[in-house]
Amino acid sequence: MGMPSMPELLIILAIVVLLFGAKKIPDLAKGVGKGIKDFKKAVKDDEIAETKPEITEKNDVKVAETTTTPKTEQKA
């Protein structure tokens, strides 16, 4: 079983037109195209996430506190 020939494709197209109507076919094609685009984007994002090294955060990191001292006036 290989690729469908031209008469088979025309029969399938005629059945689709009868089932959905000519007005809904562009909407169906748009939905299918968007689904394929989203799927490719998800696969690409997943591949990028796998190649990046994981960054772990530590919650016990202490920040050094700084104290400011008032400036003293020097007398000459």
Short synopsis of the structure:
With 76 residues, the protein is mainly α.
List keywords for this structure.
single chain, 76 residues, mainly alpha, elongated
**Major β-sheet, in short?**
none
Share of residues in helices: 55-70%
Kindly estimate the percentage of residues that lie in beta strands according to DSSP: under 5%
Tell me the number of helical segments per DSSP (H or I, 4 or more residues long): 2
Low-confidence parts: none
**Radius of gyration based on Cα positions:** 32 Å
> How does the overall form come out from the CA principal axes?
elongated
Structural class: mainly alpha
What is the straight-line distance between the termini? 102 Å
